[in-house]
Amino acid sequence: MNLVGRPQTESGAAKWWGWGLESKTYPLDDKSQFWPFLLKTLKLRELVECPRVGIEDVKLPPSRLGNRTLTQLKRFAGAANVSAEKYDRLTHSLGRSYPDLLSLRRGVIRNPPDAVVYPNGEDQVEKLLAFARANRISIIPFGGGSSVVGGVEPIKRRGLKGAITLDLRRMNRVLEVDSVSLTAIVEAGISGPQLEDALNSKGFTLGHFPQSFQFSALGGWIATRSAGQQSTKYGKIEDMVECLTLISPSGRLDTKAVPASASGPELKELLIGSEGTLGVITKAKVRIRRLPEVRKYEGLMFKSFRDGIDAIRETMQNGLIPEMMRLSDPDETRISLMLSSEPREFIKSVTTKLGLWLLKRLGYLSPHACLMILANEGSQASVKAERNSALQACKRHRSFVIGSGVGETWAKERYELPYLRDVLLDHCILVDTLETATTWNKLETLHGAIKKAIQNAMSSMGVTGLAFCHVSHAYRDGASLYFTLVAPQVKGKEFQQWGRIKKAATDCIMRNGGTLSHHHGIGRDHAPWIRQELGNNGLELLKAMKRQLDPTGIMNPGKLLEFDR
Amino acid sequence: MNLVGRPQTESGAAKWWGWGLESKTYPLDDKSQFWPFLLKTLKLRELVECPRVGIEDVKLPPSRLGNRTLTQLKRFAGAANVSAEKYDRLTHSLGRSYPDLLSLRRGVIRNPPDAVVYPNGEDQVEKLLAFARANRISIIPFGGGSSVVGGVEPIKRRGLKGAITLDLRRMNRVLEVDSVSLTAIVEAGISGPQLEDALNSKGFTLGHFPQSFQFSALGGWIATRSAGQQSTKYGKIEDMVECLTLISPSGRLDTKAVPASASGPELKELLIGSEGTLGVITKAKVRIRRLPEVRKYEGLMFKSFRDGIDAIRETMQNGLIPEMMRLSDPDETRISLMLSSEPREFIKSVTTKLGLWLLKRLGYLSPHACLMILANEGSQASVKAERNSALQACKRHRSFVIGSGVGETWAKERYELPYLRDVLLDHCILVDTLETATTWNKLETLHGAIKKAIQNAMSSMGVTGLAFCHVSHAYRDGASLYFTLVAPQVKGKEFQQWGRIKKAATDCIMRNGGTLSHHHGIGRDHAPWIRQELGNNGLELLKAMKRQLDPTGIMNPGKLLEFDR
């Protein structure tokens, strides 16, 4: 049987100032319409350049940890696992949100960690936490560092004397694969590719592929309630975790390795999503699956957003669930089709143009048209049944199947788009993403409201921007909305501009029944809304848990919960 | 389209001393082999009688609440909603576990509530909790009262001056049905039949059918992490709850009505399974589904327990999930076939006998043979795909399909078996059930170990008993085990006998990687093992939550957590 593994990924040195590998950028050579379209849409006359500083021009505040402390750290963790060097501190100072990228590109780093420790086992983590608790030093757990909500910045807190980032990359082993129960015990610092390589080699997969896959880690996925692009079928990371280990300043928690339980509240669910504020997730037992026999991507066009939404909803509610139904709104549809690589060969080009002509004739290239990528994978039998069910629901809502090309391109380029952010930032263009989820009955209203809120916030600072969206991660009772926003930077007010858009969008989400975050987490950037999200008593309950597990407040301060400096 | 609703249920007065309706018992007329088999197996020469006391002989300790307190209660809740009468106190004094039934039948009631309040809205609950907190009176939330782990007994706690049971039966309205998102907002006191009747009349179902269905309530299901008999496909109650409202002594918590979220730990999961120890669950928004187009039950025989287990495991791991695969172990298989009603008509009887002869010839009636009930429901397409997938896995493990008869009988009689307990108790026979869940790699070992532990505990008190089991509630990574145990009572030591068996079985579960409870909950009876189940830090975390929401410890004392009187 020919099983389908994940595509190979490259490796190499990571950018300290942007997304992914130093050696990579987003290829625009074969997308000749992109810049003209963007200039026109953003009402810009020409592209300008916003250079970034070199690493030699980045100045970090000196480490607050004295030599004595560093020596002690080295005693716990081994000298090779402790660093207070500039490069280590710099590369652990921020995540990969838009404001983080702004700061990095300017070389203005307010909160680098005072040291970085790379523990290689749970006993080192336990000792470090005891040391940090006794010495009032904050601890920031760090997986891949790809947070887009400020989840890893070592924010200073009054009463704490320094900050140590715990980078878990050396705890990246697969400790056990149980091919009967289909589970694997894995250390939390393992990266997406490391995990999938290890599982694929035995015929298995976790099936968790967030867009950050190449540069994020299992522990980070769990700490932030991450969702992979196939979550519609496979569930979010919380559905994949059978049990986990958290080491908190008050001690160690091992939740029970059973498929389900009625032994009181589900402790696992209190630790998943804790964003490093309760302790360090050191390992998890995850539910794996056999590599699929078949994988199939295809594109469909709908005459309206509503048609596409209804098709997803009906599919989800009919019970046979495909891997992914990713529906772009009309604006994103236009951009997606434009960003699809232009075919290089004559024949393909003619076919494509004929196809586009046909789509136009049939009314599928109107300003309201929407693109859906449908993905199915699994056994021959399950793909057949699930694909049929989805296609029938789509057909009931006037879909037009445009074949596998656009779907396969999406799959091939799924991890590439974050690189485009760096290219846009090079040209002084703001680019950010935000996401939420709500029930089906509110989805279209919420979509329209967020779009308007973003556009208004952009206009209020005198620029014309663009916000487009897709529906992904569907459930029986609702779905998530994922927005991308692009606008010319307001020179000298880059942070304020971002803050105003973020506030407008988030206020709008909270007013219209969306969740504060569906899969990015809360971190630093969403924390101001957490009381509104959870309610007074909900937030107080979280704080009571925090007091129990982290009585001196050393764990990842300034994240998730409200924060007094 | 012909949709399949739930079977009609009767109504009438409930037994104060046993299961279900006064007017009903378990019919044994057409099961002529039952008593002879039981006498032989339990090595009893004859059936004896253990009569129960009449209600007039039950004496309750006087209410500890003075007239002034009762008057105040009536002011909050309305005079018609407050009772300190004997009947109300008696019928809220215990659940329906074996020791509870022993106490009821003897009329020895140690902990009746001092009053019963039937609130008819959330504001009454809020006022009552404030009053109880101020006056140090414990509050016991009460749904259907069907707990089999001592979940509703008003256990006394030092420092508390009385106990009020809050019976939620008057909060039983369906407040909203959203046919787009497929959700319903329902008050927690609604009973199973009331809820399904209301939903069925609009073409929907919740799909939650625990064996207690007829006499349990939504709030109780949520408070105990209940599993319905179709949980394999539909999930446990926690998967059906989109959000809920809990009124705690510290105030009200409304979790967010969204399909999924990454806004920190999942608060909903802290409240589901809280067993009334954190507050009163007053309503929930549940995920409903359309009534199935098709429902299909069928029976299969396997040559061994291992074959059947492997068939379930492979089905779960292949991705197309049936509603139920319920596999009896060899002992339960024998009893199930015997308890199947004997066909009354000649033709059926001949067919049955021919069938049995054939089964025997083929080796499916050996002492190792196991019966599976396979159930599928949903749309035509999903049933076809899911049934095929399950049948193929079964075939790979040498199953023999014995047709729909035994499956349909099971479905018809699924709520009847608890009535048999009362019949057995009438004849001085101990009968209890217990359940757990574990991962596939440990399932068979755990099954054997529990069986042995129970048998040993029975023998140690000089009686010969029987313990049989089925696998139900399957997951990708494991399944639950549900044991029924039957033994002659040890006269004068009935409680000790039960306690010794319970301890032996539970210690064995804990030693062999099972969960303390998969769907019955912890209550009073499992609380001694809760520290072992959750670990020190896990239990301390629960206690911290309890201190936050219930600082004076008035909510359902003696349940779930360890308990000092």
Lay out the secondary structure.
2 copies of one chain form a homodimer.
Chain A (H helix, E strand, L loop, with lengths): L33 H8 L25 H11 L4 E2 L2 H6 L6 H9 L8 E3 L4 H14 L2 E5 L20 E5 L6 E5 L4 E5 L4 H9 L3 E2 L12 H6 L7 H4 L2 H4 E8 L2 E4 L12 H5 L8 E8 L1 E2 L3 E9 L2 H14 L5 E5 L1 H10 L6 H16 L8 E9 L1 H17 L3 E4 L1 H9 L3 H10 L2 E11 H20 L6 E9 L3 E11 L5 H18 L18 H5 L1 H14 L16
Parallel strand pairs in A: 2-4, 3-4
Antiparallel strand pairs in A: 1-2, 5-6, 6-10, 7-11, 8-9, 8-10, 12-14, 12-15, 13-14, 13-17, 16-18, 17-18
Structural commentary:
2 copies of one chain form a homodimer. Chain A contains 20 helices and 18 strands. Chain A has helices at 34-41, 67-77, 86-91, 98-106, 122-135, 192-200, 218-223, 231-234, 237-240, 267-271, 305-318, 330-339, 346-361, 380-396, 405-413, 417-426, 440-459, 494-511, 530-534, 536-549; strands at 82-83, 115-117, 138-142, 163-167, 174-178, 183-187, 204-205, 241-248, 251-254, 280-287, 289-290, 294-302, 324-328, 370-378, 400-403, 429-439, 466-474, 478-488. Chain A has a 7-stranded antiparallel sheet, with helices on both faces. Chain A has a 5-stranded antiparallel sheet with strand order 5-6-10-8-9. A 4-stranded mixed sheet of chain A has the order 1-2-4-3. The radius of gyration of chain A is 23 Å and the shape is globular. The mean pLDDT of chain A is 94. Chains A and B meet through β9, α10, β11, α11 and α14 of A and β9, α10, β11, α11 and α14 of B.
